[in-house]
Amino acid sequence: MSAPGAMALLAPMLGTVGLVDRIVFVVAALVILTGAVGVVLSRNPVHAALMLVLTLFGVAVLFVEQQANFLAAVQVIVYAGAIVVLFLFVIMFLGVDRQENLAEEPLKAQRPLAVGLMVLALAGFVALIVLGHWSVGAHSVAGAARDQKGGDVAALGRSVFTTYLFPFEATAALLVIAVVGAVVLARRPQQGGPPELDDGDSDADEADAATEEEVVS
Amino acid sequence: MSVPGSYFLVLAALLFAIGALGLLVRRNVLVMFMCIELMLNAANLTFVTFSRMLNDIGGQALVFFVLVVAAAEVVVGLGIVVAIFRRRATTTADDLHMLKG
Lengths: 217, 101
Prior knowledge:
The structure holds 2 protein chains of 2 kinds.
Chain A: H1 3-41, H2 45-65, H3 69-94, H4 110-131, H5 151-161, H6 165-186, H7 199-216
Helix pairs in contact in A: 1-2, 2-3
Chain B: H1 5-25, H2 29-53, H3 58-88
């Protein structure tokens, strides 16, 4: 088949591709916003974590739609696979997976103030990106993102291992520091440690002593 | 590409605003952390959108680093939450007034 013939045949399908893109965007946007509102409004932390997965998945879909396929895969693996699992693990480890009363609010003015502030901030964001004509700047400074040999994975790899090599190595140090910090923080305090570390326990001991005294008297 | 980049930018701004609102309104430290993740994701979406609009791979590389920093931040943050829970048995930010001088 000749090339113009193929183009004529593909033209209506290309229109359909555009429509599919739009539908995917709208569905992903709805999923993202539903998940985000769910995180803020859900009473149970476990439900909030699951809503967070919904949002992260929607963002991954939008990454795919913008040809950032590798980042979409990393988003699902790192966020949904590691970070949310860590959240759920901590929630269940601490046993705080029960309902909390959202109507209780010690600071009366905080919620209206927060909503007003966020509406103002949102208006500011939109005004900034509209006044900036949505995006300005030099094109392809760090290398082109589209139509690269090997796709976005090769382009990202070339960029990370050449232009951004030093930050990449620095993230390795950052991860080691984070792991060591987490181990030090979450370690159980040793027996005979500093007395101020046993704050909760000493209260309990005093309470026990008090009940014993009552029993004796 | 048929969906204009501006749609993605407005969606990311909305996502960021919802995350920031949650951070201000919620009292549970764990939920506040999740709201920070929402804000980081909004920034990531903006980076990828600019990467597409300007045809520059630097935006995607930056998202890569944001992911690493987010993972490290969550690990340390949850470690702090566990350490606080050992002493106070609470994950409510209001109950952490013992840091007051």
